[in-house]
Amino acid sequence: MEATDTSIAESGNLQTTSENDVIVTEGVTKVYAADGIPVNALNGIDLTIQSGEFTALVGPSGSGKTTFLNIISGLDSPTDGKVWLAGKVLSEMSGNELSDFRRDNIGFIFQAYNLIPVLTVEENVEYIMLLAGVPKSERHARVIAMLEAVGLQGVANRVPTQLSGGQQQRVAIARAMVSEPAIILADEPTANLDSKTGADLLEMMRRLNEETGMTFIFSTHDPMVMEGARRMITLRDGRVDTDETR
Amino acid sequence: MILKIAFRNTLRQKRRTILTGLAMIVGFTLLSVTIGLSDGAYGNIIAMFTRNRIGHIQVHREGYLDKPSLYKTIDNVSAVGEAIQNVADVEAWTPRIYGAGLGSVGEKSTAVQIIGVDVARETQATRFDQKVVEGSTLAEIPSHEAVIGKGLAKIVSATVGSEIVIVSQGADGSIANDLYRIVGIVESGDDITDRVACYLHIEDAQELLVLEGRVHEIVVIVSNINRVNKITSAIETQLNDSMLDVAPWQEVAKSFYRAMQTDQQGDAIARLVIMLIVAIGVLNTVLMSVLERTREYGVLKAVGTKPAQICWLVICEVVIIALGSVCVGAVLGVLANYLLSIYGITYPEEITFGGMTLRTLYAEVNVRCLAIPAITVLVSAAIVSLFPAIKAARIMPAKAMRTH
């Protein structure tokens, strides 16, 4: 393994980052107030992630993995620092622009699946395309194809509570990828799955990464997932501890 | 899809949805009944006031209403009456003359208002004969008969068969006086009028006041009181006489109309209080619901739902419950008003309004008792849901998804 210097700040001019850089962060800091006491979740993170990477964010609990994922996707705002996502500065976007940007460019896979409980599997997967105004016939065809890809053909009309954890995570993957976003962000995607389902999921993500060139960034504690990553960034106390590319 | 989510959300916490709906249904029904009873009561009062007394429309010589005078008369009564009768929706018309005088029965004297009526027309228009509580109504031909108010009879200690001497001033300046036999005593429902009213045959009154062929007022009864303003305009057009004033009852009885409107405003405040209580209850449950679903709103925002769409989702949820409640409330409201329009509510004691005496309060089933509660419930539900909706729309996805 070879440690690489990923600090974009050192380039001196972030506006001229290469077209391959899908995510660039500069001095990203996040301070939470826990019972009135400030807690530094992130302490000036400078990172560049390029298109097509399959990157794992690792580190102990409380190291800032989820916070970092939230900030680079615009789900949360940094206390200080800047984030460029596909060349755009997130802090300069309005609420609507951020919603549109996430809808069109980012797919999320959450640890707790976070499916919409009142919608069926098919409707959950279809939802983002509906927001994007994709025509009905195309939506339907893509939902069918995606459910087949994740092995959920027979459960399209079930609601999330009628599915196992593994099945729900597959629905979340289908929802994240159906609109073919440039980036997939996954927060502990295998945490609630048994080892076989976790391995299948990892295999599927790798396959999609190779076949479609989507950028995958996932936080994990799972050694198997870490093994599968091509780049592994270790966070500790809100800082980048190591950054290894294999 | 937002509508679909909103609809399905209403089915998730059925008990809460039912409770929220019940609050709206109770509010709707109460509002509907309040309006039905209010409209019924006012409708009844207006009907009694107009149909039995002042009519729906009155025609006078220009300026008479503002400053009544013995000399401001309508001279061509038959022609004017015929023209009025030709207007659509005019049911009846009747001429009247008025004069002030002194009435004496035996040794007792008091001020009287001489009211000359065309007996046949007055009976047809204002059911004059039904007001007679003792004796009989006036003969249809002039017979020097008088019918006096109950209060007046008491003041001068008159009974049916007594003779009343009336002294007044004729239109020619002469002293007018004559003797009339009291054939009946009337109770109009207005105590003030009944203390002074002395009804004579119109020709007897014209003779007394030296107003041959002339009248002061033509009272018009229409078939649909709700169209009174249009019919007034139609009569004005038909008469085409700048010397005549045509006025609907609201203008003739300005103070009565204003008092009624003020009273109705009081009802509006009562309605507002009902809706406020309902709205606070609804706000509480909607806030609870938004609080519980904070995580879901966070997820929806995370996957690309715009803040306005989240806002719309919350509002839709409340409006869907409100629409259901309006449907149920409409059935209950109509049913309650229908039953109250038949059986009514009997007052423990008689009440009077504008001289009208009411014993039973009847409701009215009309569009207002459905439309006003429906609009009020829907609009207040939408307004009440606005605050939680904006709160949901402004949620920071990461923070919301940390909520359990």
How would you sum up this structure, described in words?
The complex is a heterodimer of chains A (246) and B (404). Helices cover 33% and strands 28% of the residues of chain A. Chain A is built from seven helices and eleven strands. Chain A has helices at 65-72, 95-105, 121-132, 136-149, 165-177, 195-212, 223-228; strands at 2-3, 21-34, 37-50, 54-58, 80-85, 88-89, 106-109, 183-187, 215-219, 231-236, 239-245. In chain A, the strands form two sheets. A seven-stranded mixed β-sheet of chain A has the order 1-11-10-4-9-8-7, sandwiched between helices. In chain A, strands 3-2-5-6 form a four-stranded antiparallel β-sheet, covered by helices on one side. In chain A, a hairpin with a 2-residue loop joins strand 2 and strand 3. In chain A, helix 3 crosses helix 4. Chain B is of the alpha+beta class and 404 residues long. Chain B is 54% helix and 22% strand. Chain B has helices spanning 2-10, 14-54, 77-85, 119-126, 150-155, 191-194, 202-209, 228-239, 249-252, 254-292, 294-302, 307-343, 368-393, 397-401, and strands spanning 57-61, 90-105, 108-117, 132-135, 145-149, 163-169, 175-186, 197-201, 217-222, 244-248, 345-353, 356-361. The model of chain B has no long low-confidence stretch (mean pLDDT 88). The chains are: A alpha/beta (246), B alpha+beta (404). At the A-B interface, helix 2 and helix 3 of A face helix 1, helix 11, helix 12 and helix 14 of B.
